[in-house]
Specification:
It is a single chain. This protein has about 300 residues and is α+β, with helices and mostly antiparallel strands. The protein folds into three domains: about 1-30, no CATH class; about 30-90, no CATH class; about 100-295. The protein contains nine helices and 17 strands. The strands form four sheets. The chain has an eight-stranded antiparallel beta sheet with strand order 12-7-8-9-14-5-2-16, with no helix packed on it. The chain has a four-stranded antiparallel beta sheet with strand order 6-13-10-11, with no helix packed on it. A three-stranded antiparallel beta sheet has the order 1-17-15, with no helix packed on it. β8 and β9 form a beta hairpin. The N and C termini lie far apart (about 50 Å).
């Protein structure tokens, strides 16, 4: 036992001495909520100088151009938030029409994709986390229900289009706001922070679909100034889980919500969907909203 503890401490020390380890450790030390609150106020500001400075600096830093978007001039945006959640041009993202197809809910990169085994979702190589914890189901009902099901985790980089759309047809029946930490959600943090997506602030959207109950989880992150959906509006942060009931029918490709600054969207499907992910969808695959991820073969 002493040798195991000694080896574990040695591994942690070695990690801290790496660049990735220092980046991860720093996130434990900074006041995550306060930083995000300050960023949120600045991002929402309509002061011309603040807005212009933030928008132009950000667009230059991330090489963002507006050819695909409805508004073509940086001066057309009222605030940094307005710019960050900019809407696409009509038909900029064709929605795949494969029968029973499941599409990407957002532009970004596949962080992980696969099947739920023993109630666990793959976060990164060597790291799993509980689906029931992700969905904040205290009775573990959802964890049992999704056993043998499927998941797809899409990471949205700062330069991406930041609206989240429906990956399938469904009726939104519940939203569940879950307070939590605000770690970064990039690959470095995913590899080094246990239970990252089940620890961070998130909004669980639950749907009735033709293949059973399915979820889309919008996960917050460091400096994320807010999460918004078509059913809830912008979510007010709280220290308690907040559950709301809905009855809103949405079609595949319809807008579901948006992030104010970057984050991650996780699609969770039941075993009854019989989801088969396409062979080219794997860790690191770049995707666009509307692109086919897989097919619900039992729907």
């Amino acid at each position: 036992m002493k040798n195991i503890m000694k080896n574990s401490l040695k591994q942690q020390a070695q990690l801290l001495l790496t660049r990735d380890g220092l980046f991860t450790a720093a996130q434990h030390l900074v006041p995550q909520q306060k930083i995000s609150e300050v960023a949120g106020r600045l991002a929402a500001s309509k002061n011309p100088l603040i807005k212009k400075t933030f928008v132009k600096t950000f667009a230059k830093a991330y090489g963002i151009t507006l050819e695909e978007y409805a508004r073509k001039d940086l001066a057309d945006f009222k605030s940094f938030n307005d710019f960050f959640t900019r809407e696409l041009d009509v038909d900029a993202r064709p929605i795949d029409n494969t029968d029973q197809g499941v599409i990407s809910p957002a532009d970004g990169m596949i962080s992980q994709i696969g099947h739920i085994q023993q109630g666990q979702i793959l976060q990164a190589k060597g790291r799993d986390y509980s689906v029931s914890h992700l969905l904040a189901d205290t009775e573990n009902k959802d964890g049992n229900y999704y056993e043998g099901g499927s998941f797809a985790t899409v990471y949205l980089a700062p330069s991406n289009y930041h609206r989240v759309h429906m990956p399938f047809d469904g009726t939104l029946i519940e939203t569940r706001y879950v307070p939590g930490t605000l770690f970064s959600v990039n690959n470095v943090t995913a590899q080094n922070v246990p239970d990252l997506f089940a620890r961070n602030e998130r909004l669980v959207c639950v749907f009735d679909t033709e293949f059973g109950k399915a979820c889309v989880v919008l996960v917050g992150a460091m400096i994320v100034a807010g999460i918004e959906t078509v059913a809830t509006g912008k979510i007010e942060r709280s220290e308690q889980i907040q559950t709301l009931e809905h009855n809103i029918r949405l079609k595949k490709g319809d807008e579901l919500g948006r992030f104010y600054l970057g984050s991650t969207a996780i699609v969770v499907l039941p075993k009854s969907a019989g989801t088969e992910w396409t062979q080219d969808m794997k860790h690191g695959s770049v995707v666009q909203m509307g692109q086919l991820l897989g097919v619900a073969t039992k729907a």
